[in-house]
Amino acid sequence: MRLSGWLLAISLAAGLSACGGGGGSDGASAGGGNTSAGAGASGGASGGADTGNGGNAGNGGSNGVTPTPAPTSADRIAVAAASGDSSGLLASDSATLLDMAIASATSARDAQASILANIYGNSSVVPSLAFNLGTNSSDITPRASTTAMTLVSADDGSSLAAISNVGNGRALAYGADVLVWMAGTTKEQQHYPFFRRAWGWLLTGNANSTLPANVRYATAGYTAANVKTLIERTGSTATAITCDLTSPSNTCWNNADVLVFGGSVASNAALQSTVTQYLNAGKAVVYMQPGWGDSAGGRQVLAAMGMTLGGYPGNYFAGTSAVSVGSGRTIAASLTALDTLSPLVNTLNQLKQTSVNVDLTTDTSSPSAITRTMNELQTLQSASVDIFAADPHYALQRLLVLWADLWRPNIVYGKVPRSDAANFLRAYASDSWVDYNRVSTRVSPTGQGDFMPASAQSMAVASDWEDIDVTIAQTSGNTLIGRAAVPGKPLQIQVVDAAGASSLGIQTSYIRTWGNPLTDSDATYLRPRRPNSFNLPLGTAPVNFVTPFGGPLVLSYSGATANSVVKLRVKGGAKYAHFDFTRSMSAADTADALAALKAGTFGWQTTKLIGGEIEQTTKLAQAVIGNTDPAVYVNQRIRDGLFMSNHIANGYNDAGMTTEVANLCATLGWTCDGPIHNAPVVQHFVGWLAACGYLCSGNPIDGYAGIDIGWGYAHEMGHNTVQRVMHIVPDGTHGCVVECDNNILSSTTALRVYKTLGIEISGGHPLDNPGLYSLIVANRNTGLSGDAQIADMETRVWSNPSQDVMRPVHFQLAYLFTRYRSGLAQPTMETTLDFFSLLTKGDRLVAKNFSTSNAASYGMGRYANNTIGNSDLLYVLSSKIIGKDVRKLFAMYGIPLSADALGSIADLGLAVAPMQFYALPALKHNQLQTGVWMDIDSSTPPYPL
Question: Whole-model pTM above 0.85?
Answer without folding.
Answer: yes
